[in-house]
Amino acid sequence: xxxxxxxxxxxxxxxxxxxxxxxxxxxxxxxxxxxxxxxxxxxxxxxxxxxxxxxxxxxxxxxxxxxxxxxxxxxxxxxxxxxxxxxxxxxxxxxxxxxxxxxxxxxxxxxxxxxxxxxxxxxxxxxxxxxxxxxxxxxxxxxxxxxxxxxxxxxxxxxxxxxxxxxxxxxxxxxxxxxxxxxxxxxxxxxxxxxxxxxxxxxxxxxxxxxxxxxxxxxx
Length: 220
Ligand SMILES: [Zn+2]
Hints:
- This is Paraquat-inducible protein A.
- It contains seven helices and seven strands.
- It is an alpha+beta fold.
- Strands 6-5-7 form a three-stranded antiparallel sheet.
- Helix 2 (about 90-100) runs antiparallel to helix 3 (about 105-135).
- The longest helix has about 30 residues, at about 105-135.
């Protein structure tokens, strides 16, 4: 991010004109970034600001796609297993119940939280935040939910769950007659739309849109 031609030192500039690199703490003058452009830290190369065109509309489409995939991904069969004449169908929900009934209550609760509850809460937070930005209403609630979303980010572990499913498929494929279910396709779709949503929903644009009212009143 090149520095401005403005000769004032950083200490004399208002806070909203400054930006700090989250990676190496370098303080810089904040430059306007054009659509589909990004600003990177000149010291460590971290992507500080990225401006996505039509961010809310694209992110809303992705969050709705992810929410529509959520139910089939969790409740439709991930795989159908035929072993010694016995056929079983497994879903993510039946996996949680199976852990619970085999006495691993703690693991069942952890899997339930990290693979079902937190991913759903994250998506609902993102949906409400995007609607607050779109309709310019309840921005205080939007700020609160976006902060909450950042706290939950590390706890949604769909990738880990997918890795577990892939490992079990590789292990079981030689031992039993294995058929992959529609639930697995929905689960992969859910994971991909979540990753795409995270890339599309530029944090700086979200914070700026939610905080626009607050900044206006502060600088007045
Ligand atoms: Zn940096």
